[in-house]
Amino acid sequence: MRLRKSEVRRLPFWNFCFLVFLLSLLLVHFILNISDGIARSLIHLPSQAKNGCNGHPDLCTRKYSNITQIGTHGSPFSGILPMANQNVDIKTQLDSGIRFLQAQTHHNAFGTLSLCHTSCMINNAGSLQNYLKVVKDWLDAHPQEVVTLLLTNGDRKNISEFDHAFTASGIKPYAYVPKNTGDWKIDDSINSWPTLGEMIASGKRLVAFVDYETSPLYPHILSEFLFFWETPFDSTDPAFSQCTIQRIVAAANPQMYIINHFLDTQIFQMTVPNRKAASHTNAAAGAGSIGAQAQLCKELHGNLPAVILVDYFDRGEIFKVQSLLNGLNIND
Predict the structure, then answer these.
(1) Which residues are CB-neighbours of 289 under 8 A, at least 6 positions away?
(2) CA-CA distance, 185 to 250, in Å (whole number)?
(3) Which DSSP state fits 240?
(4) How far apart (Å, rounded) are the C-alpha atoms in residues 49 and 205?
(5) Angstrom distance (rounded) from CA 264 to CA 277
(6) Beta bridge pairs of residue 86
(7) Is 60 exceeded by the pLDDT of residue 13?
(8) Residue 193 dihedral angles phi and psi, to the nearest 5°
(9) CB-CB contact of 256 with 148 (8 Å)
(10) Residues 151-203: pLDDT tens digits?
(11) Distance CA 76, CA 103 (A)
(12) Tens digits of per-residue pLDDT, 89-101?
């Protein structure tokens, strides 16, 4: 079949129109994210730091393994761009009451261990050392707080690189090290954890986990999957109608678990965080809420999650649901 010359001339025109249409849709999405991000940045987030342990006196006598924490997924990736997971920076997250920070690491082009989501060419939030220094300075100024870090080792680098960042940032003396049971084995049972009050009294107020390549030579950097399993991540189902055990090391028997309760959406074959749905996703109750998925997981697995990771923590009711899951007065 042969096309007439007039039809051939029209083909580039329609291709151009289609390209303009796609770019227009991307521009609209970008503008909506910018306007929403700016609006969120103008809202003052009140400090949640109070007397007691991690904001509440009743938590002082609770074991670390017997509390539920809301954590910020992709904590260093903040801002108004579509790929940002949070609206505000690390210090503001901590000041607002977040005590569990999750971040992804990769090598940047210069071989520096950096905070990068998927690739340092796409989303680079600076070096791990600088990130840890921010957390260290915050711990210095808040002696009644216990903070947890969960770092992914995306390039499967030697854990000594993480240790170097911990040492150079000055945060290493804060790191909690579990009891040693001999032969480089640690007590990973759920009842072996100290209370928050005991951790604060000892000065060991940082709990640091890395998912892969940990080593007993660096006992202050704990193996995530020795202590936790995880539910599926990158969900595009707003109902969050599952609590499947997905990420786990077969040889381990973790008793704590992490719910990945952050919603993504597809835009032209790209997966990005669903900022528009965050208030609903981060609600305390109702279909697709944090509370509903936590209850589903409890029914299936017998205990509440230790951690619930969210995007855009400042939208929704995360501190309300955190108090409810811990049996605390939501008005305190």
Answers:
(1) 280, 281, 282, 283, 321
(2) 17
(3) -
(4) 15
(5) 9
(6) 78
(7) no
(8) -70, 145
(9) no
(10) 999 999 999 999 999 999 999 999 999 987 555 567 777 889 999 999 999 99
(11) 7
(12) 999 999 999 999 9
pLDDT the model gives residue 230: 96
One-letter amino acid of 65: S
**Which residue's structure tokens are 């409890």?**
298
Confidence of residue 12 (pLDDT cuts 50, 70, 90): low
Q: How many C-beta atoms surround the C-beta of residue 332 within 10 A?
A: 11
Residue with tokens 């109702």: 286
Answer yes or no: 44 catalytic.
no
Q: Is 109 exposed, middle or buried (0-12, 13-18, 19+ CB in 10 A)?
A: exposed
Catalytic residue chosen out of the listed positions 56, 117, 220, 261: 117
Q: Phi and psi dihedrals of 156, rounded to 5?
A: 55, 45
162: nearest Cα among 187, 137, 127, 186: 127
Catalytic site residue 106?
no
Catalytic: which of 29, 44, 56, 73?
73
Radius of gyration of the chain (CA): 22
**Tokens at residue 103, please?**
């971040």
CA distance 52 to 74: 28
> How far is 24 from 229, CA to CA, in rounded Å?
42
Q: How many CA atoms lie within 13 A of 165 on its CB side?
A: 24
Helix (H, G, I), strand (E, B) or coil at 285: coil
